[in-house]
Please model this.
Amino acid sequence: MKTSTRGPIGAGRRRPSGKAALGDLEGADVQRLVSAASDVALMLDADGVIRDVIVGSEAAAAENTGQWVGRSWIDTVTVESRVKVEALLRDAAQAPRWRQVNHPSPSGSDWPVLYSAVQLGSANSGAVRTVVIGRDLRATEALQLRLIEAQQAMERDYWRFRQAETRYRHLFQSSSEAVLIADAATLKILEANPAATALIGGSSTRRIAGSSLTALFEQPGARPLQAALAAARAARKSEAVRATLADGGERVSVALSSFRQDDASLLLVRLTRFGAEPRAAASGEGDSLLLGFVRSAPDGLVFTDSDGRILLANAAFLAMAQLGSEEQARGELLDRWLGRTGVELGVLLQNVRQNGAVRLFSTLLRGEDGASTEVEISASAAEQGGRSALAFAVRDVGRRLSAEPRAAGELPRSAGELAELVGRVPLKDIVGETTDLIEQLCIEAALKLTGDNRASAAQMLGLSRQSLYVKLRRYGLGDLGESET
Model:
């Protein structure tokens, strides 16, 4: 009887080694493989000194990584990242791990890179090398920053809505006027304040909520009441009508107005005892209410004469201008705090006199203590007692999120972005930025056309080599260490 020499299925198959799977790769092929797998790769010797740098992205190439060759890896990182570099080198021969390391960047902010180190060879053979694979984290960092800013904006909006809801609840519950809120489609009462409960005669608000609005009145099908309901649905507001509450209740005046909440249309119903309708506020009372609003408004409100001298300023403007009292602002010219240049207020006043009003004029408000705030101004002209006056509404827009925030020091890249600077930056600064932008773009194009040959690029641009080196240093283009010598 013959015995089989074959083992279990798959036992005779050997897993191919890395060499058998990858084949005999050339050095150039290995370099391309590492470049494709990383944004930046470092080749270290046994002492941790960088012997070669492989760059796999244009963003990493702009960080002057070529200057790292011949330096110890630990000397190219920030102080707080040195411990991480030591840990990466220590774990390279065992279980490689990923760690974030920061490099100083020519742009000013640190360059975050996620590294993993792998040791090749062994200490016994005497040919120990370490390959460090790095991935650029700036895109992830920018997304995280945008996420944090969006979350903070959402939290500010949430608390603002909560505060508005608290004020509404307090006003609704403490109002002496009977107020009901009903669904405009079904006329079902959703809410009623204590004054409405006392007027209608119910024992609690819960019993009124859920009942029909028309059930509160005698003759619910009366023409005036039905006409008022139809007018409120169609025109958002109706004239007050008189009706009698059910079960021998009082005669009341019913005022209806509609508003939308989410996707539903609601009715605001105000009930007033007949003969006790609130009279219109007298002129003095209206002025008092308006002045109270001006004093407590969240936006800065300023009233000036026709020459721009401040007559009245509310607390919000005083806070933005870092002033302790209104007396410090009264009689002063508004351009002491408003505008980047001395001509902005003159332009604003001229537009207000010609057009009667100006909307969303962007400028800068400077505080007494040196702080500055980006603001938008809306202004209008008015007359009181035969005297001309100007009113300014100043709104802080510095906290608004930019859709695509520009990096610090980055030049505008389009005519539209340059146009946005008009009114915010003096003309000579705009011209200077435009000149710098064109000069930088021409130098970059010349270097690209000449294959980074500085002598040929200088000849192409009509510059001396020394002038070209000065401009390269100014714009941070390339490594000037060896080329300048």
